[in-house]
Amino acid sequence: MAYDSAGPPPDETTWSLVQECKKHSIGLIISCDANAHHSQWGSTGTNPRDHINSEAVKSKEFQIQLEKDKKNIDQKNQEISNFHQQLVEHKKTIEEKDQQISKLQNDVKKCEMKLKDLKEYPFIGCTSYGNATDVHQTSFSNYSFDAICDSETAGPGWTVIQQRINGKEDFNRNWATYREGFGSFDGDFFLGLEKIHRLTRFKPHELYIYLEFIDGKVEYARYQQFAIAGESDEYRLGLSGFSGNVLDRMIQCNNNQKFTTYDNDNDGWNDGNCASRYLGGWWYNDWCGFM
């Protein structure tokens, strides 16, 4: 058993000796040099095999430590990733809160401006004239116009924005005419998109639609919220809160639609102009539906 044998013990010579002794029933005592100068015993006189074993042990220990370090690094990276995700979510929440604060600040500013307008130019409209049913001046925010006040159809304080009672007025008008209004207060008329826009923007309004047929039948529809946008948004219609004795078609067909005239087509109908087809301006949808 040479100390520098390339193979693992026992070597071929020793193995042959053991087999021969077994064959002839001969006792055999084997002794060996177990490297008493091994580094484990503090010796410096070690052979090359001991150096190899020591390096292997150190390499294994280093590999184990590397795996532990890698696991720790992976855990830290995961913690960093989670923290980064939390930061992103917090940032998004802060941005949403900032937007809400900005909106509230704008709302407060608008309320302050409206309060200032009310102080400088108090609202005077049909609600100011009690049970009067006649033409009166409406004025607010340094803006004024005449309008019919109606206190008989649905209670006091209503401003009439459209009236069709004798069929003498042509409602197939261009955009500019619908914007300014047309007709006569003692017959058919339309108050004007710009007036209605300013009126409904200045303070909340309801809409009441009253239809009376030749046979005396009456139908009505009432909306708790009514407003139209400005000309930059083509006087888009806004309605909600329906009640009445008819099927609600205005919200179904016309709500959130832009106004259309024969010379300003804002409906979604690709094959033509709804105002030209039905000979009048309205808030038509893509299939020319109306109330």
Structure, explained:
Keywords: Coiled coil. Residues 117-291 form the Fibrinogen C-terminal domain. This protein is α+β, with helices and mostly antiparallel strands and 291 residues long. 38% of the residues lie in helices and 17% in strands. The chain is built from six helices and nine strands; from the N terminus they run ααββββαββαβββαα. The strands form three sheets. A three-stranded antiparallel β-sheet has the order 1-2-3. Strands 4-6-5 form a three-stranded antiparallel β-sheet. The longest helix is centred in the N-terminal third of the chain and has 73 residues, at 48-120. It starts with 11 loop residues before the first helix and ends in a 13-residue tail after the last helix.
- CATH topology (fold) name of the domain at 161-278: Gamma Fibrinogen, Chain A, domain 1
- Could you give the order of strands across the largest sheet? 1-2-3
Global Rg? 47 Å
Number of strands: 9
Note the main sheet.
3 strands, antiparallel
Second-tier CATH architecture of the domain at 161-278: Alpha-Beta Complex
Note the total helix count. Answer: 6
Portion in helices: 25-40%
Quick one: CATH superfamily of the domain at 161-278? Gamma Fibrinogen, chain A, domain 1
Shape descriptor reads elongated
Catalogue the unreliable spans.
none
Instruction: Give the helix/strand class.
Output: alpha+beta
Query: What is the helix/strand order?
Result: HHEEEEHEEHEEEHH
Q: What's the overall average pLDDT, rounded?
A: 86
Our measurement of the CA-to-CA distance between the termini, rounded to an integer number of angstroms, reads 111 Å
